[in-house]
Design brief:
UDP_GlcNAc_Epimerase_2_dom, UDP-N-acetylglucosamine 2-epimerase activity, Rossmann fold, binds uridine-5'-diphosphate, 7-stranded parallel beta sheet, binds uridine-diphosphate-N-acetylglucosamine, 13 strands, alpha/beta, 2 domains, isomerase, 15 helices, 6-stranded parallel beta sheet
Length: 381
Amino acid sequence: MDKKIKIMTVFGTRPEGIKMAPLIKELERESDNFITKNIITAQHREMLDQVLQTFDIKPDYDLDIMKKSQTLSSITTKVITELDQIFIDEKPDLVLVHGDTTTTFAAAISAFYNQISIGHVEAGLRTWNKYSPYPEEMNREMVDDLTDLYFAPTKKNFENLLKENKDEKKIFITGNTGIDALKYTVNDNFDSSEFKEIDFSKKIILLTAHRRENQGQKMEDMFKAILDVIQTDNNLELVYPVHRSPAVQKAANDVFAGSKQVKLINPLDVVHFHNLIKRSFIVLSDSGGVQEEAPALNKPVLVLRDTTERPEAVQTGAIKLVGTNPLVIKENLSSLISNSDEYQKMAKAKNPYGDGNASVRISEAIKYHFGILKDRPIDFV
Ligand code: UD1
Ligand code: UDP
C-alpha cells in the first residue's frame, strides 16, 4: 500500500482514554505509515480532560456532549448524529473504538453506517449476562457484531469471539493496553501534595465504585458494609476518589461523610491513581480497568460485582468476586485484612492481562491487515 493509512480513534470516557492513550502514542510513532486523528465525544468531561492532559493528547474533534445525569439514549443519539458528518468528510480507512461504553457502541454503529472498517480494542470480554454489567455487556456484544479487526486482550477473549463464530483470522491476541499505560504512570517513589489528606502510616483500603446497576440502595448497602469493617480497626483508612456521577456522589456522601477513617476525595488523574494503588493495602472496586491494573501492581482486589468479564485474574487468584451482598462483602474483607496467608497468595498471583506491549501488537496487526507487514504479529500468551 503506497498511501498512508488514515486511522480515526473515537473515545469518550476516562477508562477509554487511559487505554487508548498508549495506542495513540504508538500510532503517532508510526507516522510513516499512519495518519492518526482523534475524536473525543466527551461523554465524560472533567474526568476525560484529566487523561488528555496526562498523556498530552490534543483531540482533532471534541463533540462535548456531556450533560448532568445524562441518559443512555441521549448519549447514543448525540454521538451518532455528530460523528456522521465527520466520517463523511474525513473518510478514514479504519475507526478504532475501545471497550464497552455507550460512546463505543454509538461510534461503531456510525462507522458501520458509513461503511468504514472498525477495529475494536479490548474485544471479546463477556459475562453473557445482558444486564450485568449494564449496559456494557450488550454494548460490547453489539460492537463485536460490527467489528472488522478484533484486538482481544487474552486467549479467553479470543475463545469467546470464536464461540460467536467470528472469523479467527481477524482476531489478534494482544494483551490489554491498560497494562501499557502503567509504563507511563507508575513511579517507585511517587508522592504528591494531593495525597496530603491520606495517612499512609495506616493500612489504606482503596475503593472505587460507580456501576449503573449498583446505584441507589444497593450501593449504599455495600458502602455501609465496608464502613462497618473499617470501623473495627483504627489502623485502617478507606480512601475513595468519588466518581462524578451525581448518583454515586449521593451514595458516598450519605454513607461516608463524617467518618474520620474515610477520606472522600475528587477523582484523581491516572498518574496519582495508579501510584495510590501501589501504596494501598487492598483494593475494593466494581471497575473494569482496576481489576487489571491492581494485579499488575501486586495488590489484591475484592470485586464488588455479581459478575465479571475478567475471569482470568479470578483463576490466577489475584482478584476475588465478592458480589454486592453486604454480609459477603464484610466476611471477605475482614478475612483478607486479618489472614496474611490469604493476603500474600492474592498479592503474589500472576497478572494475566498483559506485558506492556499490547499497543505495539495492535499497531503491527493493523499494518499486517493493510499489507504493510507480511507476517502476522505473534499473539500475547
Ligand atoms: C460510563 C460508562 C461505563 C464506564 C464509566 C467509566 C456508559 C453507559 N457508561 O459510566 O461503562 O465504566 O463511564 O467511568 O457508557 N460526570 C461528570 N463529569 C465527568 C464524568 C461524569 O460530571 O467527567 C457525571 C455527569 O453528571 C454524567 C454522569 O456523571 O451525566 C454519568 O456519566 P456517564 O458517562 O453517563 O456514566 P458513567 O457512570 O460515568
Ligand atoms: N482511575 C483514575 N482516577 C480515579 C479512579 C480511577 O484515573 O480516581 C482510573 C483507573 O486507574 C482505571 C480507570 O480509571 O484505569 C477505570 O475507570 P472506571 O472505573 O471509571 O471505569 P471502568 O474501568 O469500570 O470502565
